[in-house]
Each structure stands twice: as C-alpha cells, then as structure tokens.
Amino acid sequence: MKRTILYFFSLIAFSLVTTVAGFSASDNNDNIVKKISPEISNLKVEPLSGCHGTVIKITLKIHDLQGLDNIRKELYQIREGIEPIVLKLYDDGTYGDTAANDNIFYAETIVPKTAAKGVHEFHLFVLDKDDNKSNTLTYKFTVSKLLEV
Question: In the prediction, which pLDDT does 1 show?
Fold first, then answer.
C-alpha cells in the first residue's frame, strides 16, 4: 500500500513539473515549429530624409526556419508608435528587388503631403502565416521643408 501511494505522489509531482515547464502529452513537433518567429536583419533605408513625395526604398533580410513560403509578404511599419502602415514586400526580382529568392526583400513608400516636418521614427516587423511576429527594427526619417519653385 505504501508503495502504491508513493507511486501515486511521484506521478502527481512529475505531472506538475512537466506542466510548469510547458510540456504536455499533446505537444507534437508541429506545435513547436509554429512557435518559431521569423527574424529580420540588414535593414537599409534610402534616403533617410526628403520632402513630400520622396520615395523611400527599404530592403531587409528575412530568415524563417519554416521557409520563406511561410512569411506574409507584408512589412508592418509603426510610425511614432501609433500609426500602422503596411507595405508590400518583394523578393522576386521585380519592383525594385534586385535578385529573386535571395532572402533580401524590398518595399517602398512615399512621404505623404500630410507628413509633418521633422524627424519621424518607424518600427518595422514581419509576420509569418502562423501570426508569429519577428523582431523589430527601427529607422528614422526626416521630412524636410517642401521646396517651392
């Protein structure tokens, strides 16, 4: 009887340890893979300043262990921490992308007429098809005075 009680309490203790550690009997490799977020790096923004109507060219490298087919082809920018902007991403050798399928993605945006003069901060990230968010990269763009002719 003592041995049965000891086994019972050992089983309960093991169940608690695995639950606290984040393991469950229903976990499988598919669930683990879905929790892996993409990574972005090598951000290049040109130019870093300009007036209204300036085209801003953005390139960045994207890495995802699940493959690039798992990446949503959208770049999410948050301006000043409040204004979301979604840009289309290209890695097919078109629309400013220099080489297809090289993990270097291209996007562009235009400084709108409504942009206030001064320095604006943008936070960038991507999502995969499982809604995993990448790390965030930041750049600053200075809107200069519109030159009148």
Answer: 54
